[in-house]
Design goal:
136 residues, mainly alpha, 65% helix
Length: 136
């Protein structure tokens, strides 16, 4: 059975940077699934949602996993790489959002608007993980 980790092509103990890198890569090679990948991305980069997902995936008591809730303590090098990836995903976000000017499908435009807002929230959360230097 495929799980969220295998869909992004990463292991279940992947770091935050690895998850962001995999999301960016998947969106680049298969942009038609960008809405789907973003749902996965949202779960895996949020520590609490990831704990809940992992508990369901491994069928373990969720209380056993809460000790891992701080697993996104990044060293300065990881923070720098995360900042770079955030910039790339931000560019990707704006690029796809601009497709609204070329598409007249209302269903797509609604999904695009929801996706855009969701990705803005995810990127804001990721920026909050950077503690050692200022990120615009």
């Amino acid at each position: 059975m495929r799980n969220l980790y295998s869909i992004l092509g990463i292991s279940n103990n992947s770091s935050l940077v690895d998850i962001c890198r995999a999301y960016q890569f998947k969106c680049k090679i298969n942009p038609s699934n960008i809405f789907y990948y973003t749902k996965i991305f949202k779960i895996l980069v949020n520590p609490k949602l990831r704990i809940i997902y992992d508990a369901m995936l491994w069928q373990v008591d969720i209380r056993l996993l809460f000790s891992y809730s701080d697993r996104y303590n990044l060293d300065p090098e990881d923070e720098y790489e995360l900042a770079f990836i955030i910039g790339l995903i931000d560019y990707l976000k704006d690029y796809f959002y601009d497709t609204k000017y070329f598409i007249n499908n209302n269903d797509y435009l609604t999904k695009l608007e929801l996706w855009y807002n969701e990705l803005v929230n995810i990127l804001d959360q990721l920026r909050g993980e950077i503690k050692t230097f200022y990120l615009n």
